[in-house]
Amino acid sequence: MGLQHKKEYTDTKSLRYGHLMIMTDQDHDGSHIKGLLINFLQVQFPSLLKLEGFLMEFITPIVKVWKGDIKHPKQLKSFFSMPEYEEWKQQPGHQKGWDHKYYKGLGTSRPQDAQVYFRDLDTHLKEFHTMKEKEAELIELAFSKKKADARKEWLREFVPGNHLDLSMNKISYEDFVNKELILFSMADNLRSIPSVIDGLKPGQRKVLYTCFKRNLKKDTKVVDLAGSVSGSTDYAYGEASMQQTIIGLAQNFVGSNNINCLEPSGNFGSRLQGGSDAASPRYTYTRLSPFARRIFHAQDDALLKYSESDGKTIEPEMYVPVLPMILINGADGIGTGWSSSIPNYNPVDIVDNLRRRMTGGSKEDMKPMTPWFRGFTGEVVDLGGERVKFSGIIRQTGDNEVEVTELPVRLWTQDFKDRLEDIIKAEKVPSFIKDYTEYNTPDKVHFIIKMEDKHIKNATEKGLEETFHKYATVIDIMEEFYHIRLRYYEKRKVTRFPIWTPKRKTNLHPAIPTQRDAERPRQDEQSVSFHSNDY
User: Fold this and answer.
1) Helices (H), 90-200
2) Using only C-alpha atoms, what is the Rg of the chain?
3) Smallest Cα–Cα separation from 236: which of 189, 191, 292?
4) What is the mean pLDDT of the chain?
5) Looking at 17, 117, 283, 436, which residue is catalytic?
6) How many Å apart are CA 320 and CA 360, to the nearest integer?
7) Per the domain annotation, does 379 fall within a domain?
8) What is the pTM of this model?
9) Quick one: 425 and 499 in the same domain?
10) Considering the domain boundaries, does residue 47 fall inside one?
11) Catalytic (active site) residue 489
């Protein structure tokens, strides 16, 4: 366009084009891209957004509904936002007799559709109003790192069903932020931050639902399972993303899952590179773990609330496992305004705490827990103030030689090796290492490091320690899980034994594994398991 930095624009005469039109997918991610472009212009060229008619957008349908043949429909209606479609669908007479199609991206439309869109510019071409002072603050609210707390309040005020009226010819930035961009932010949190009850994100829940539905006890190619999940659960994103989700559910190396719900049959990655060394999904296979149905009990299936898509049942809104999976396997997710970072905990500690809660009267009966990663042999120290220190194992084996046999959790072997190489090169800091030898395996860490004489004492005293920030309300998570899980046990009993009525002060221990169960090894002898109905 010929833009010049720091220039104050009062017109577009010096530019190659007089208008900028944004054309993105009509889904939530498309709204995010629009917002990013508007934010870029507001930061770098704010004067352009104050020019009448400069910024425009071209909208396309997100959903089309019709009666009759799709090529020659008797009736046809297009919707440009999902809330608009959902609102229409709830009206009488719109539930039956209509076919519909979801237009995930611009590529879903045929060339003939594009011709129809461009012939009707009054419907599809929208102009943004000139930006007002308070609207610039809204753009900052949506994207500034300093406004995270304000974004939380913004999202708390969201009213479901509220959406941008795209029948208007002009759009204000205030309406765009508060009625369109906010839909992306809400969806971003829902797909990025796991449920506190089942510990799953929507994509992971779709995988388990498909595996349970297929009773997947025999090996299936990861690439085939990904296709099956996408086809049966209305997964709206790329299959590569789904394949990585499946791989993540099957990983069992140190620093990944304490209990993997899927079995890794093939190379699913290792602690050498934190899982990024997994083989192509075309060559790896998976199936349900023997523990999956003991954790997500089949007798709960009838009690769950299932979502719908295209008139068919898909995955539930949440599962209710017998143990809080979000604590056993941990969780990491970054949404809008909120993020989640929960380390893994020992299934046995969690079972013990649930037993204390069952026999006691409040959450105060439960004891604080220290994060625990299966197979980690280093030291874990609670520093207080919601901080935990994970230390590797290092010892001096000679006058100028040290041996490293464990690294802090999620400091991957290759990353540590790269750090050693950087130190030896001395490009960033003076080198204190002469050389090193490695005897690492996919499961074990083993380095022999030769150091400069003058640095050996400081290095052994410092060790390889790193600080890990712990989630602040583990007991609160346990308490919330406890009450919801107990309600579902009562529902299950009512379903199985109709004459039974629940009593609030019942002292039930259903499906909680015994110590013998917890110590029973998995069938796959390649990895040690500490659990039965744990997660």
Assistant:
1) 111-119, 121-124, 133-143, 148-156, 173-175, 182-192
2) 28
3) 191
4) 86
5) 283
6) 22
7) no
8) 0.82
9) no
10) yes
11) no
